[in-house]
Each structure stands twice: as C-alpha cells, then as structure tokens.
Amino acid sequence: MLRPVSYVPVVTVVALMGFAVLVHGQCSTDDELECYIALINMTSDGFVRLQRIFATTSYPGYTVQRLIVANSASGAFLQRIGQLSKSIIYIQYNEQVFLLPEGNELTYVIITNAPTLRFFIAGRNDQLESLRIENSLLNVIPSTLAQLTQLQLLQINRSPLALLPLDTLAKNPSLLYVELLENRIAKIIPPTDPGAVLSVQQLSLSSNWIVHLDLGVFERAKNLNFLDLRNNRLLTITTKVSLPKLSSLFLDGNRLSSFDLPSLQTPLLHTLSLSANNFTEMLSQWEDKSELRYVSFDTNRIRTFDFATVRPLKKLASISLTENMIQTVFASPPVVELPLLQGIYLSGNALDKFNVNGTELPKVSWITLDKNRLTIVPPVFRKYPNVSLSLINNPIRCASLEQYRDKLNAYRITVDVAWHDYICPSLSFKLLDIDICCVG
Ligand SMILES: *[C@@H]1O[C@H](CO)[C@@H](O)[C@H](O)[C@H]1NC(C)=O
Ligand SMILES: *[C@@H]1O[C@H](CO)[C@@H](O)[C@H](O)[C@H]1NC(C)=O
Ligand SMILES: *[C@@H]1O[C@H](CO)[C@@H](O)[C@H](O)[C@H]1NC(C)=O
Ligand SMILES: *[C@@H]1O[C@H](CO)[C@@H](O)[C@H](O)[C@H]1NC(C)=O
Questions:
Q1: Which of 54, 319, 324, 406 is the most exposed place for a label (fewest CB within 10 A)?
Q2: Which atom of ligand 4 is least distant from the CA of 385?
C-alpha cells in the first residue's frame, strides 16, 4: 500500500471485515505509520469519531477496515473527508459510479480495486493533482477529466480502455504524467481541435493492443520527453514527426522489423530501446541522433554487428545486443571512434571470435560475451588493458585462458569456475585455490 511522503493524513478504505475493537474512539491497532480503525459508521457517529481521532492523533495514514455509508462511498462522503484529509486511497470500491463533487478539496484520490466501476464523474475541481484508478470497468477516459484543472498525474491501469482520443488529455493544462497500463487501447486518435496543445511530458502506454502507430499523433505534444510503448502488438510504426523534447523512447516487446530513423526528428533522444522485436539487422543512419547514450536491441534476430553503423553516436555510453544471432562483429573502415562508449553487451549470441580491430574506444570498461562460442580469449587487452571481459559459458581452451592468469587474478576476466556443487564439465586449472573451467 502506498504511503504518503508528507505527514498529510490519508484515509484508506478497505472492504475487509475487521473485528478488532475500537478502544475509546482511537486506533484499534497501530504501527508507526498507520492507525487501523475497524469500523466507521457514517450513518451514526462515524464522522465525529474520525474528527476526534484526527484531532488527538497524528499518524501519516489511517486505515478504515470497514466503512458504512448511507448512499455512496464517494460523493457526499468525499466532501466530508476532504475536511479532514488531503488524500484518500480506496483499496476496494464496490460501486458502479464514482462521484467527485464540485469543489472537493482532496489533492489525490487512488482507487486500487474497483471491479464494478464504470463511470467516474467529476465536478469543477481546482484541487485534485493526482488520480489513479486500477482494476475497473472504465472503458473510456472520463469526459469530466477536463473539470480537474490542477490534475498533474492521471493513471488508469488494468481497465478496458479501448481508445485514447488525445483530445481528452488536451484540456488539462497541468497534466504532465499519464499512465494507461494494461488496458486494451488499440487506437490513439490525434487531437481534432487544431488549437489543441498537450502538456503531457511522460506518457506510458505499455501492455496495450496497438498494432499500427503513426507517431505523428503526438505532433502537438511538444513537451513529450518520455514515451513508453512496450509490450503492445506493434507491427509497423511511422516515425515522421518532430518531437523536440523526446529523450526516451521504449518500444520493447513488439513485433517491429523496421524503424525509419531519419524521419524521426528527436534532437534530444537519449535512450532508444527496441529489444524483443523482430529486427534482423542493426539500424544504420543515426546521423542526427547525436545525443543518444543508450541503445538496446536485445532479443531480436540480428546476425551481424558493424561498429560503423553507430559511428555518428559520439555520446553513446552503452550498446546492448544480447540474445540475438550475431556471428560476426567488426568495424568497417575508417576507424570507428566512440569516445564515451563504456559498455558493449553481446551475451547470448553465436560468436566464435571477437576482436576490437578498427575501433577507438577510450572509455570502454565492460564487454560481455557470455553464452557465445568463443574458443580463445578475445584479443582486446592489448588495446584496452583496463576492460573487464565476461566470458561465462563459452568453450574456451585451457591453453588460451592460462595465458591470462593476471587478468583472471585482477577480475578483468570472468569465466566459469568450480563452486560448491558445480564441477567443471570438461577440464580445469588452478588459480590460487580456485578451479577455473576450460576446454581441452
Ligand atoms: C450504523 O448505524 C446505523 C444507525 O445508527 C445502524 O442502524 C446500523 O446498524 C449501523 N451499522 C453497523 C454495521 O454498525
Ligand atoms: C518476424 O518476421 C518474420 C519475417 O521476417 C515473420 O515470418 C515472423 O512471423 C515474424 N515474427 C513475429 C513474432 O512477428
Ligand atoms: C586484428 O588486428 C591484429 C593486429 O593488428 C591482426 O593481427 C589481426 O589479424 C586483425 N584481425 C582481423 C580479423 O582483422
Ligand atoms: C588503465 O588504468 C590505469 C590505472 O587506473 C591507468 O593509469 C591507465 O591510464 C589506464 N589505461 C588506459 C588505456 O585506460
């Protein structure tokens, strides 16, 4: 359960039946952070008891295990609670409608489980900053969202939303963070109003049902800096758009096999993640993506990697190509200089040799080559004496590995070793007391 960061009282409503005894109107049980109240009966003395508890105690949170209300656990009840608390978390909400009355003073409302909730209706509200609804039956973004003039964070997760009409987000000038995870969104509809402006900076749409996406729908979201489309069903993506603030783009877990880099105008792009897709080759044409630091193409079907493809990425810090089918890594001339590259991740490929010829990587400090087919220690130390090389699960010959006793000692090379019940499958040699596994 969420704890508030400041000492603003939170009222939590749970539908569990609690039989603890409420002693003298105080907590039935408590801990440092929370006062548990077994029963509040709003149709009799409930509000007076809450007032008394709030007046005589100061816990960061209050949990009401069973709440009895006349009509609804939202609506009028929220108005009264708004006098005592800044925020409320419903652990279980069992009604079809949630009503946030006009002028309500709560700043955040969280509903974590609302299995019958179909409608969220808000009156004019200049206080609410954060709204989270999870596990509901909401199938559209509530149209009264526009009434929440101060809303900054909207989360509707694990609900059956099917469409994302961006018009519904364009009416909240303060709305910076939007998360709509694990819905059924298959379509994003661009704003229809030509003057629409989207304030949103972070948009997470992971685990939805999008198959084809034109990033052009986000044209009016000029402040968008984080876009998460992981685990959709994307087969195609059109990238002809200018997103001047976009720094992180996550497209992992889709079915993409192509991505038009030159069309995407994102001068501040810092992280691009395309892991678990269907790429058979590494993208080239990175020319105007000079701010990129992190690029990942893990778990695709890539067969070769030429360092020259990422030559323009002078700020690249990490490139990850694990779990592909890479058989060769090379660097087409002229020499590929990547002045800030620190990590090269190539575990789980089909490499039987690896070298760093044709590269100039002054900052390289970590190369992982686990789960490949290497039979000799790759010749990287002459050029990069300080690099750490991970070679676990490769059939490295003893004669090659034994030449690197100093690197093994200095933990610059990591390989399989005999340990507890693990016995080297083939041969081994001793280094101090350790059996280093190798192949004859
Ligand atoms: C709540 O209060 C009403 C009015 O006093 C009473 O009829 C009802 O039985 C109470 N409910 C519970 C569960 O105590
Ligand atoms: C990946 O692409 C190939 C064709 O290149 C296709 O046959 C296969 O079904 C695709 N896989 C997925 C998961 O989309
Ligand atoms: C890499 O460079 C070394 C030394 O310059 C050379 O001996 C070796 O043949 C080169 N390897 C390849 C695959 O070009
Ligand atoms: C390797 O590390 C040592 C000690 O930290 C340092 O003096 C040296 O310059 C480094 N060499 C390279 C090529 O980075």
A1: 406
A2: 13
Confidence class of residue 11 from pLDDT cuts 50, 70 and 90? low
Among 236, 245, 237, 294, smallest CA distance to 265 is for: 245
- The residue whose C-alpha atom lies closest to atom 3 belonging to ligand 4 is 386
Helix (H, G, I), strand (E, B), or coil: what is residue 51? helix
Residue partners of 332: CB distance under 8 A and separation at least 6: 306, 307, 308, 358
Q: How many domains does the chain have?
A: 1
**207 CA to centre of ligand 2 in angstroms:** 20
pLDDT at residue 379, as a whole number: 96
Residue written as token pair 């909401």: 138
Domain that holds residue 63: 1-160
Residue 357, ligand 3, Cβ within 6 A = yes
Q: Are 21 and 38 in contact (CB under 8 A)?
A: yes
Nearest alpha carbon, ligand 2 atom 6: 278
Ligand 4 site-directed mutation target among 386, 387, 406, 407, most atoms within 8 Å of CB:
386
What global pTM score does this model have? 0.91
Q: Which two tokens stand for residue 91?
A: 């652990």
Percent of the chain residues past pLDDT 90, beyond the cut: 77
Q: HSE-up of 22 (CA within 13 Å, CB side)?
A: 20
CB 331 within 8 A of CB 306: yes
Q: Which residues line ligand 1 (CB under 6 A)?
A: 41, 43-44, 68
Is 132 part of a structural domain of the chain?
yes
